[in-house]
Amino acid sequence: MDSRSIVDIAIQACEDKKARNIQVINIDKVSSLADWILITEGLSDVQVKAISKSVEDRLEEEANLLPIRKEGTSEGKWALLDYGDVLVNIFQPKERSYYELESFWSNGEKLNIESPIYSNEK
């Protein structure tokens, strides 16, 4: 399974738990860290944990993938799921605003997940 397909599954898992403001940035041309970074948020530690669990469950079920590393999933302030080529970051709004990962990765290419083209690809 390619990294873009992994991103699509992660987006759906986030949407299932009503994650807010999902941003996906292609960073493969600007970093060797990963191909994609997904950034989203939940309004509480319970919602951050639920989004994180949803991503883990969907990727395990649909792609037979487990995260290589995960951080912050028990605290629910900033959960990081590292799938190698795909990094999933789930924040609470205060932490997202503080770290501003979108600004840090602004030289990457944002994926417009609201576009009709993307919707047709799902």
From TrEMBL:
In Gene Ontology terms, what is a biological process of this protein? negative regulation of ribosome biogenesis
Q: Which Pfam families does the record match to this protein?
A: RsfS
UniProt keyword list:
Cytoplasm, Repressor, Translation regulation
Mostly located where? cytoplasm
Query: Is the Cytoplasm keyword given for this protein?
Result: yes
| UniProt-annotated location(s) | Cytoplasm
Domain of life from the UniProt record: Bacteria
Q: Among the entry's GO cellular component annotations, what is one?
A: cytoplasm
- The region annotated as signal peptide is none
Q: Does the keyword section mention Repeat?
A: no
Family per UniProt? Belongs to the Iojap/RsfS family.
Explain the purpose of this protein: Functions as a ribosomal silencing factor. Interacts with ribosomal protein uL14 (rplN), blocking formation of intersubunit bridge B8. Prevents association of the 30S and 50S ribosomal subunits and the formation of functional ribosomes, thus repressing translation.
The protein's name is Ribosomal silencing factor RsfS
Organism from which the protein derives: Prochlorococcus marinus (strain MIT 9211)
